[in-house]
Amino acid sequence: MSEPLISYDPRNAFIPVHGISPDDLKSIAGALDDVRDEVLADAQLWADGVDVEPAKQPLDAGFHELPDRLLADYRSHGARSQVGRIKSAADRLSGAVDDVVILGIGGSYMGARAMFEACCRHYYNEVPETMRRGRPRIYFEGNNVDNDALLDLERLLQSRGDKWGLVVISKSGGTLETAAAFRILLRDLQASLGRDAAQLGNLVIPITGGSGKLFDLAQALGCQEVFEVPDGVGGRFSVLSAVGLLPAALMGLDVERLLAGAAAMNDHFRNTGPAENIVLQFVGVSHLMETLRGCDVRVLSTWGKRLEAVGLWYDQLLAESLGKQERGALPLTVVNTRDLHSRGQQHQQGKRDKFITNLIVERGTRDAEPIGTSELNQDGLNELAAKSLADVLGAAIEGTNQAYRDDGRPTADVRLPRLDEYTLGQLFQMLMLATAVEGRLIGINPYGQPGVEAYKKNMNAILRGT
Ligand code: PA5
């Protein structure tokens, strides 16, 4: 029996005046289908190494078939495959240390963070090792320039006297935020090893491009394993390469399931017509809400605590991919019900420039806890004693969307039957494909991020006095 796919339901976008109609969506079905063909052709052009027209450069379409290729390789070559090597490196490092610091920024960090928050238990770093199934505590650094935060991490690691290691991720190998944190923590790690300094190369796993400063450093350190960010896979499209898979394996997540979920989404994308294709529907509805109704703020409304970092990963994906040529919708992640008490007012009654897509997990991982009865009923909750927190969340989702609908504020839902590696793999791939599709639809190259270079150039010039 095939496993359920995540689903997309735009019915609450089909409302009068401020919404769109099913006919609007049908009117662009042909265009969406053509763009799907173009995205599939892009993946083929990339795989064939064909020179492409300047407007298509860079063509970082390597992310598309990556899950299928990695899975096929793993299934035929096992431990010798890329996934096999990732799993054994993660097992080896897990066995050697208590803590791992993952260094990286932007696309070299946000996917790992998203998986950590979505798939690992809350308070993961606080629970006993057995509850982490023997996996190390995970910390993230090199994703900002914050002296106090880095010092606090250094002190934490020193104070516990734990064994620790580093995973350093940078495709270019030259990103200053990550490089500076790496240098400082490497110095600490070396000092903590004392006479075992020769161990350094076993406790540092770099993930980087096939050449560059980090690559050279990795050679100089004699790192036991170095993983490559594949060519043709841009940072924000790299979560299902070693960039995300090694951190996931360190957290004890099932990387094969992540890839299988993504491969299932690829299959759906390739073989399903526009009317049922959730990637094309998601793009079509969001695009029409922007072009017909001026909703150029795209709110990803996540429900519950576990999807915030997934939302931030998507913020980066959309902003860096389509925020070019003075165009591109503004992504905004909210976490509800928390943000109903901060942004909710604006979403309910503010400017009609927002299109809200809910990200909903249908079934929690644990049994739902009832509110229960109490002799102290001053809060009046005995009336709700049999209701669980899951019931309260369900009512909040329904009530909020009804209130939006009553005021003519369109929404759509992405539903995950549960939140695990398989559904998250699907969601990552769905959103990456959607971003590529939308880029082609509106004539913006979704790959590359030339605008990010400006601040880097200035920062380096200021620091080096050039
Ligand atoms: O999506 C991207 O390409 C960027 O966000 C990069 O991931 C980010 O700038 C970090 O770059 P690097 O991996 O080269 O250190």
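^ 5-phosphoarabinonic acid complex. The mean pLDDT is 96. The chain has two domains: 7-53+258-450, 63-257.
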